[in-house]
Design a protein that fits this description.
By secondary structure, the chain is of the alpha+beta class. It has 3 helices and 8 strands. The longest helix is centred in the middle third of the chain and has 26 residues.
Length: 152
């Protein structure tokens, strides 16, 4: 097994999304209790309330899951135990100023998998420099300020 640079990373925060979906679900559930709604409309409100509640549970699970790990090898990246070869990556995207978020975009994809988005937990400057040096060494382009689109 190759030895590489081990960096401490964390997932982008989804607290705002969790809170918004939870509040939306609560508002929808309260609105279904009003007496003047027709029955079909109440059913639609229940469906949307359950969907918002489901998304809230999804974000809650994502918030409390274990911390991801990132290891830079010579020609690959080990992210959460999965090996990503340098030639599989289309680009490394960065977004943000005070807290930079990084995303590893695969070739042939427009959206980034949620598992491939991270920011550095500690050694912020050293982690960014190490990732940039790795990308330059393996000829993976770095796109600063480009929008990072994930499924959820």
């Amino acid at each position: 097994m190759e030895s590489g640079v081990l960096l401490h990373v964390k997932r982008p925060k989804r607290v705002l999304n969790f809170t918004a979906h939870l509040v939306l679900a609560a508002m929808m559930l309260v609105n279904t209790q009003l007496p003047y709604w027709p029955p079909l409309m109440i059913t639609a409100w229940w469906v949307f309330a359950v969907l918002a509640l489901g998304l809230s549970v999804y974000y809650l699970v994502r918030l409390i899951e274990k911390r991801p790990s990132l290891e830079l090898l010579e020609d690959a990246i080990l992210l959460n135990g999965s090996r990503i070869e340098a030639d599989e990556l289309a680009e490394v995207r960065t977004r943000g100023y005070f807290l930079q978020v990084f995303a590893l975009l695969s070739k042939g994809r427009r959206m980034v998998a949620y598992d491939r988005c991270f920011s550095f937990a500690r050694e912020d400057l050293q982690g960014m420099q190490a990732l940039r040096a790795w990308a330059e060494r393996n000829q993976v382009p770095i796109a600063d300020g480009k929008r990072i689109v994930t499924w959820i």
